[in-house]
# Entry
Amino acid sequence: MRPRESQGRVLRSGVRRFGAASLAGILALPLGGCFVNWEQVTAALDVPKTYREAPLNHSAALPSVVWWRGFRSKELTDLIEESLTSNFDVAVAVARIVQADAQSRVAGAPLLPAIDLSGSVTRSRASRTTGTSGTVSTGPSERDSYSTSLSASYEIDFWGKNRALMRAAEQNAVATRFDREVVALTTVVTVANSYFQVLAARDQLRIARGNLEAATRVYRLVQERFEAGTASALDTAQQESVVNSQRASIPPLEQAVRQNIATLAVLVGRPPERVAIRGASMDRIAIPPVTPGLPSDLIAQRPDIRDAEARLAGGNANVHAARAAFFPSIRLTGEGGYQSSALQMLFRPESAFFNLAAGLTQPIFDGARIKGEFDFRRGQQDELLQLYRKAVVNGFADVDRALVAVQQTARREALQRDVVASTRRAFEIAETRLREGTVDLITVLTTQLALFQSQDTLAQARLARLQAVVSLFQALGGGWQKAKPEGQPRP
# Structure
């Protein structure tokens, strides 16, 4: 047999053995999956059947995906929808999603073979006077070497370690998506509350200016009576104090309007000079109806709960990966290519070479590093479990607190409107009788201060009611994608 044919047969035999070894590694993948156990833990959640403060028809008005439109304010809707696309915190959360997706691809890379192509050209010259005889060598002093090769390596994931690490990275990517939803919901809530605070300050400004006008009108009446000798200097000073007090209440309200507009500007990603709020009163804001559904639905709707759930799943996968580190790792490597001292001979069969290897590594002693890593992951898993359980229970508590706030602030606003109506009637009567000279100034002072305070309290009650409704939407996780009909089985 000729040398060229013999070398070609050896090369083909080596390639067949390398293919067989690679096939064995590929066939071992599903076998490795049989060892996968994600170290699941039981959350043991105590889910109530309904909320304590929920209405009888708990699913009559489940939150819409665009729940903020229920306030019937186009300006508020425009601000919120702009914030969802222009807010800097939302943009940061989106960037973290991109990073997490990239990390999950990096974590999944060990599940596939690593293949490299390399080539090299070497020119060398050996010394001609290194012989023991002391004579100068007459052989060739310069040599060229050409080589090109393809190498591959693969770790058989027999115990599921790499698959577990990839799953942990994937769950982290899922968690970043829920993080983005949490940030978006927080942004929407902050925009709504800041907008309502602007309107509340403007309502209070209008009330304060009206009260200032009323107090000034009474002051002029007192001055007229003082000039007529029917009022004392003390009466004049007391009413002047009321006028000055009302005048002093205006600057803080103007400050609140401007500062909240600046806050809104940051939330929508614009400088304050580019933001103008046209809304003038909270009375034009509608109160959207909303019901909480069932507590079991909340677990699937609140993004912070889903975030904690995804991180717990990632913790389970990390525990499995840490457990798999106790077992041996199996790696297949192979390299094949051509090498020659002459470029024209490089790709001839006799210039071919290959190397095949299979290795197994079993940890024996590492100073308890693997055991420490396993214990760390177990402790981390327990921490994530408790955080998940806390997120669920805290979600139920948030909804109950918000329901109480919605009910009580609505009742407070209705009662406070009655207070304003009665104090306004009393002040109008007192002012009329002051003009007639049939009432003393103390009565007028008492009624006007009661009216001023009740009007301001009503504005605060209206703001508290709007913010309570917003807090209920936030507690429910924002808008719900779909509602499960009554009687439908739950997964």
User: Anything to note?
Assistant: The first strand starts at residue 114 and ends at 125. The chain has a mean pLDDT of 87. The two ends are 71 Å apart (CA to CA). Strands lie at 114-125, 142-156, 329-340, 352-361.
